[in-house]
Amino acid sequence: KLRDERNEHATTGPGPHGDFAGLEAQARSDDGSLCCPDRRIHDGEFKAALPGRLLRQEGDPSAGDRDVDLAYDGAGDVFSLFAEEYGRNSLDGAGMPLIATVRHRRNYNNAFWDGSQMAYGTGDGQVFRTFLELSVIGHEMAHGVIQHSGGLIYENQSGALNESIADVFGSLALQRRLGQQVHEADWLVGRGILGPGINGTALRSMKAPGTAYADDMLGQDPQPWHMDQFLTTSDDNGGVHINSGIPNHAFYLFCNYVGGRSWELPGRVWYRALQRLNNPMATFADWADQTMSAATDLAGPGSFETVLLRRAWKLVGIGI
Ligand code: ASN
Ligand code: ZN
User: What CATH number is associated with residue 237?
Assistant: First the structure.
């Protein structure tokens, strides 16, 4: 119903009630809170073209397509994390539609944000069995948020930060859906998406980077959790999916020290730091500084939270 009203305003401008429904107002309900995602889920039909055939858009009931419904529900949860917890209206902060394609290519073992939409492979059934899992959906959507928050260049430390921040919000979306306290969370990214051919439980672990899988085909999960193990490589854009283990683990430690619900104070600190960063080439140390400023803003100078955050960064080898 809200959506119909919004469309009416969007197409007719100032409405008969004398109010002006500008962009800002479009995603706000009567009480002024952010409310409404604008989801558009497409079927890639196992082809490479994006976005593919539109199968379900905002307000449509389920048509019984499991992949489509997982993408739709997941996008809703991630929208709600950013809107309700951090006051952000969609990925760009201005209500942009959440466009996703499921069944992208055949046997495709990945999911990605392409700069304007999400795309999910089905996996080949051996290495991966699906990518439609909430922490993965949140990860891809967070890439959109990062892009629209000044960006982080996708190589070396700034690229690993980009990856880590995507993991953080992916994990927060999942913890929030499950209503978990910090100590109840498993801190896994992509739990259950690995196929029967792989010996492992998830794609990554923020609690214990390097332990998510150990396999003949994939090898040992290569993530470090301390700067001593920082990997300098030209693979993977400079190890962006590897060294992300370090800031991931700092976030995990901070959450554990603080306790409670991770998407609350710790999530707010990370979100605020991302909004304030303004440095696409940021290093881990730059990011740690920015999170310290954000924690100081939110919890107060000299607060216990800032002490705990400094301790978390120190434990992973980043002294600030
Ligand atoms: N799944 C990967 C990611 O979102 C895809 C990529 O490496 N671009 O990080
Ligand atoms: Zn990523």
Answer: 1.10.390.10
